[in-house]
Amino acid sequence: MKTLLLVRHAKSSWTDPDMDDFDRPLNKRGKAAAPEMAERISSRGTIPQLIISSPAKRARSTAKIMAREWKYPRQAILLEEELYLCYASTFLKVITKIDDDFDQVAIFAHNPGITDFANYLTEEMRIDNVPTAGIFAIAADTDCWKDFDRAKKRFLFFDYPKNEGATLF
User: What are residue 90's phi and psi, to 5 degrees?
Assistant: First the structure.
């Protein structure tokens, strides 16, 4: 069984309209939401063994904050260029490259791709929008990440900061 956490980056700052999108940092709300969401994941017993992130500053920062909460070494976070503002299909390309030794993986990325990919994964749950710092979790009945797309999947949960801790199954 493989568990995938799709994590949208936390809320970013728009204070500098001239700043390149790639370089936008987290704002105060984003910096508060990231550890809160990491703690919610920890309380479910789902701690990623591997973290993969878009290299954009807001995604990297969210991954680093959550990694700290999960006691995951920040230097072990894999940055995947393809995840920056990618299409849903790109997630599958990234997933098929994951080492099978990892059973629980978190991928940090952006909308609209992350919402589109979450909706592609299951018929059980339809999401209009994965909000900032939102987490969509799914389990795949496979031992190999390269078989993830064809594997039978089970929706685990969808949570986000304004959900105020309520669990959606």
Answer: -65, -35
Q: How confident is the model over 39-63, as pLDDT tens digits?
A: 999 999 889 999 999 999 999 999 9
Query: How many degrees, rounded to 5, is the angle at CA 34 between CA 157 and CA 44?
Result: 35
Query: Cβ–Cβ contacts within 10 Å for residue 163, how many?
Result: 15
The values of phi and psi at residue 96, to 5°, are -65, -15
Whole-prediction pTM value? 0.95
Residue type, 137: A
Identify whether the C-beta of residue 46 lies closer than 8 Å to the C-beta of residue 3: yes
3-class SS string, the chain: CEEEEEEECCCECCCCCCCCHHHCCECHHHHHHHHHHHHHHHHCCCCCCEEEECCCHHHHHHHHHHHHHCCCCHHHCEECHHHCCCCHHHHHHHHCCCCCCCCEEEEEECCCHHHHHHHHHCCCCCCCCCCCCCEEEEEECCCCHHHCCCCCEEEEEEECHHHCCCCEC
Phi/psi at 31 (5° precision): -65, -25
C-alpha 89/C-alpha 76 separation (Å) is 25
